[in-house]
Amino acid sequence: MAAANGVRRVWVGKNTLMSTPAVSAVIRERSGADGSKATGAFILTASHNPGGPTEDFGIKYNMENGGPAPESITDKIYENTKTIKEYPIAADLPNVDISAVGVTSFEGPEGKFDVEVFDSADDYVKLMKSIFDFESIRKLLSSPKFTFCYDALHGVAGAYAHRIFVEELGAQESALLNCVPKEDFGGGHPDPNLTYAKELVARMGLGKSDTGVEPPEFGAAADGDADRNMILGKRFFVTPSDSVAIIAANAIGAIPYFSSGLKGVARSMPTSAALDVVAKSLNLKFFEVPTGWKFFGNLMDAGMCSVCGEESFGTGSDHIREKDGIWAVLAWMSILAHKNKDSIDGDTKLVMVEDIVRQHWATYGRHYYTRYDYENVDAGKAKELMEHLVKLQSSIPEVNKIVKGIRSDVANVSSADEFEYKDPVDGSISKHQGIRYLFEDGSRLVFRLSGTGSEGATIRLYIEQYEKDASKIGRESQEALSPLVDIALKLSKMEEFTGRSAPTVIT
Ligand SMILES: O=P(O)(O)OC[C@H]1O[C@H](O)[C@H](O)[C@@H](O)[C@@H]1O
After folding, report:
1. Residue limits of the Alpha-D-phosphohexomutase alpha/beta/alpha domain (predicted)?
2. CATH match for 2-118 among 3.30.420.10, 3.90.226.10, 3.40.120.10, 3.40.50.1220
């Protein structure tokens, strides 16, 4: 919501619900364009202060960057919810036809207000064209040697996918899977991972049974609101941690937006350290932040970070203040186009997703990585498990005794702590952001309680091992990580506390 010439204005995306990236892009694009300033598009109460910080819920804030609210705001909102006694509902708000672009004016109790319905895909395409070289991607997509498949899982990405991949970049209609947005996501679970993106996974040759059809060279999926992504090659899964590292390693050469360099890169704490190795080698500023996109936003606003990502399938850059699923796919297409710029025509074999990842591992080493989720665990038991792990941290020799008793073939634990983050921009401190056990060879075990699980508690266990030796980078990751998994489960007494002999989901 923003105020233009003193008239309040609400923006609504035509038909497409409004995906997260589009909302953020629109706020950044439109903020100031008509002399107005966006002030927190997601807060439902009206703004009274055109162009300045807004006072809603009795809280002053200024969120014209379109990003998630910082902790200082959500903490205050939570505090206020404890004293709210009543709230007004605009029950007789007139209906607005959100399928037609245009501005409609209404008279409200506090004066006139406008509702502007716009085509959010227009704004988004414009933004993407200012970042990527569409011509070179179009050349790649038009090559008969390159095949592609995009699964929107019936989320909002479908509307953007058709416009960008088919209309702008010339992909075949048949490249789009589940790209008609549906309110119930077609009965599926719109989570872009190997468990839920079943059709894409099968099409890419990663399903349990062979479809008998040659899979496409490049595949990708989005979640319901199009802010997350999964990247696949033919019969090949790219971990989100590797994906952000590979984008960062290739950004300067492959993506015009970054041609003058990267301001810095960042990852969430549980995300693998693949990005750290790239940052070190390219001499880039690097940040490790707690889980949650808002922490990246501060760095970006301060001009300290260009590319960032999370293990939870979010990847993005400072073009907006949210993760952006379609941006990530365009970033990969740009890298593929760049690597193949001299071989698109003719008979030369193209460099494909798996080649790029293996080349990356050969250069920077490989971070074997897996995440175990224990969903809907008894909240009290989950808390006890975490307390047990924190208590253990007081004696590293004792931890090592247990570790060696479980497996003598793993490195020693060198340190253990609870991750705490001091924001370098505003100095705020976030405590208890996950329990870490760090090993001498760079391996890590991380335990966190999910902040988004809906029933009981969700325990997330992240397991990572770094392998520099090029002759050992081609193993199956579950096999390579099995000693560390064994240690994590026994050290945490997972089964004892949760009663679970296996996780709900393994990524
Ligand atoms: O706390 P978790 O369940 O692990 O969820 C973590 C995720 O939550 C939200 O989706 C945030 O937007 C992500 O940035 C974050 O990675």
Report:
1. 2-87, 122-232, 241-342
2. 3.40.120.10
